[in-house]
Design goal:
Layout (H helix, E strand, L loop, with lengths): L1 E7 L2 E8 L2 E5 L1 E4 L10 H6 L4 E5 H8 L1 H6 L1 H5 L4 E5 L2 H7 L6 H10 L4 E2 L12 H21 L6 E6 L5 H13 L4 E4 L2 H6 L3 H12 L8 E3 L8 H6 L4 E4 L1 H6 L3 E4 L2 E4 L18 H5 L3 H29 L2 H9 L3 H13 L1
Parallel strand pairs: 4-11, 5-6, 6-7, 7-8, 8-9, 9-10, 10-11
Antiparallel strand pairs: 1-2, 2-3, 12-13
Helix pairs in contact: 6-7, 7-8, 8-10, 10-16, 14-15, 15-16
């Protein structure tokens, strides 16, 4: 399922094989809403993104049996590999969802997603340890049940690692999922860490998990899509990572650049060429109506993220990932704190 070609630090260039083709890692996985798609999925595919992630819980609520008949690829109009979040984000936001884990697992099988995730209970950030332990145990129980009911149909089931800043729980979660023989794992709840600029804690969480993951098992990182954090995540051993950052920033007229984000009205020139910057200047883009402007910025942001991933791959290929990660870390003092973690564990 996973072949490693080159490696540097804990980062590696590899190939993931799915029912819908090959994915070269490290790979950014754009979040795509299953109902509201202002940037068409086939456009994202043509840009070179061979895997996307969409929400199975929203798909179930919106399409129900229609999704079972058509399949997720037809629903979102995408012919590459698809990963589905089973509703963990909604659980994190609202506490519960109105579907049982076994029913969600059955739905993910029915819609034939390439990467399926059990309906876990994310620990998030700053959750008391007693409650975090309950969430981890609940998630592990659900994961075990899900593996018992899964079909041998080529789907790749991803085991969600929980525990947050409670690293002993992260270790327990990881070891248990490896023992269950999940072919791929994913580190849950990092978004709140990054929103709080707790990059050091995030690095420790990734390293804690990686210590217990065999090299043949790829690791996904939920919610990581900023160019400043991508080199760090890859250097620590994350193979794929998803985010809706490209669209979320665009809604606030924020442009993703190589060294951070900038308000569109602060730019006189775009930092690199793509189909958006070839047609518009920042000022011309500001004159567009809100929705059109948002979509154009989101498209630019996708190109920016893809360029960053390609720079990281080149750094791995040339054996200079440490140098490149250090360069990025100097852009933000909180990010630089995470470098100590890499140094101590390298």
């Amino acid at each position: 399922m996973f072949e490693i070609k080159y490696s540097d630090l804990a980062g590696r260039i590899g190939t993931l094989h799915t029912n819908h083709g090959k994915i070269e890692t490290p790979a950014f996985v754009p979040v795509l809403h299953p109902v509201k798609q202002s940037i068409p999925a086939d456009k994202i595919r043509k840009m070179g993104f061979d895997v996307i992630i969409t929400n199975a819980y929203i798909t179930l609520n919106r399409y129900g049996d229609q999704a079972r008949k058509r399949g997720i690829h037809d629903i979102v109009k995408y012919d590459g590999s698809i990963m589905t979040d089973s509703g963990g984000y909604q659980v994190l936001e609202y506490g519960e969802v109105d579907v049982l884990p076994k029913d969600m697992a059955k739905f993910e099988m029915d819609i034939e997603t390439d990467f399926a995730i059990p309906l876990d209970k994310p620990t998030g950030y700053k959750l008391p340890k007693k409650l975090a332990k309950e969430y981890v145990n609940h998630t592990l129980k659900v994961c075990k049940q899900t593996l018992k009911q899964k079909k041998n149909n080529g789907q790749i089931w991803i085991g969600p690692i929980q525990g947050g800043e409670h690293f002993d729980l992260v270790a327990k979660s990881t070891k248990s999922l490896v023992e269950m023989k999940f072919p791929m794992l994913a580190l849950g709840s990092p978004v709140e860490f990054m929103e709080s600029y707790e990059y050091k804690l995030l690095a420790e969480m990734i390293i804690t998990a990686k210590k217990h993951i065999p090299a043949a098992i790829p690791l996904h990182l939920f919610g990581a899509g900023h160019p400043l954090t991508i080199p760090l995540a890859v250097a620590l051993g994350c193979d794929t990572f998803d985010s809706a950052s490209y669209m979320l920033y665009a809604k606030h007229d924020r442009v993703i650049t190589e060294d951070g984000t900038r308000k569109l009205n602060e730019l006189e020139y775009f930092p690199f060429d793509c189909e958006v910057s070839a047609k518009y200047t920042p000022k011309e883009l500001l004159e567009l109506k809100k929705q059109e402007r948002t979509d154009k910025i989101a498209l630019f942001n996708l190109y920016s993220i893809k360029a960053e991933v390609d720079r990281v791959k080149q750094a791995i290929h040339e054996g200079r990932l440490w140098e490149y990660t250090m360069k990025k870390a100097r852009s933000h003092p909180k990010l630089f704190e995470a470098i100590d973690i890499i140094t101590k564990n390298s």
